[in-house]
Amino acid sequence: MEGTEKKVALSGIQPTGIFTLGNYLGAVRNWEKLQKNYECIFFIANLHSLTTKRDATILKDLTSKIVALLIACGIDTNKHTLFIQSDISYHAELSWILQCLTQFGELKRMTQFKDKSQKNSSNINAGLFCYPVLMAADILLYNPDVIPIGIDQKQHLELTETIATRFNNTYGKTFKIPKGYIPEIGAKIMSLTDPTKKMSKSDENQNSFISILDTEETILNKFKKATTDSDNKIIYSEEKPGISNLLSIFSSFADCSVEDAEDHFKNKTYKDLKFETADVVAKNLKPVQEKYNELLKDRNKLKKICEEGAEKARAIAKKTLDDVYEKVGLK
Predict the structure, then answer these.
(1) Short-list 97, 87, 80, 88, CA closest to 136
(2) Which secondary-structure segment (H or E) carries 43?
(3) Scanning 223, 246, 275, 318, which has its CA 20 to 30 A from the CA of 303?
(4) Domain total in the chain
């Protein structure tokens, strides 16, 4: 209906490395689709990346590259907002206020904190423990209607809902309770070498993940080495995690259902599944890679895009934070 305001969708991504297929299918490609029906706010969550030790020069470089990648993947900065988290100090300010409303036990139960603590036992810092509250602040500052998330982020969104409800009950209606959006296909892409684990760019085995900047040859070689099984039945099943993962990837890029993918490979071999999946992935990633390389030639333009986005986002965030400050007695 003409004149009706679109609902708001918000999401962020850390500049910790070039996207894998998991990042792309589970988050970024869905951002592109959301733009048709929502007013979108996207940001580079560089404050979150500080929970692990980062070289300053590398972090700055990666931040620019992620901006270029998002635009190459279809983010329309002429119609939607893209900014860098650290350019808006209100994220950190609201995070502190929300931390004072968050219980220690709630953070201690966070699955990702437990997992990351085990992987980085020499650097279990307070930021790693409290970052779900910063994530809540990222969301609540903009009062979005929808948050596109992967399955592994569901617990964090639930904590955000808990914190927002607690604030509203204590100080009066302030925050909108956002809903999570999890795509049916590609929500959680698994490792190619160990399909019981999520695909991750931090995996020591380079064959376990596909980077969206991998060459066609590299993509084919990695899929050739993908873990399958010995019975040669191409069906989607919990008992066949490797095959199910490949079918999920194929169906996502071929824009078909998993059932259609099963039917397509009904009388084919595991070799066919691997080669055809590699082919459809490479063909879909090629235009993204070309646009990305073109965008990186002008980093000043990328910086300007983010500055303009931050100006728009800052106006929204300031209004929210001013309201919060007044309600808690800081204004």
Answers:
(1) 97
(2) strand 38-44
(3) 318
(4) 2
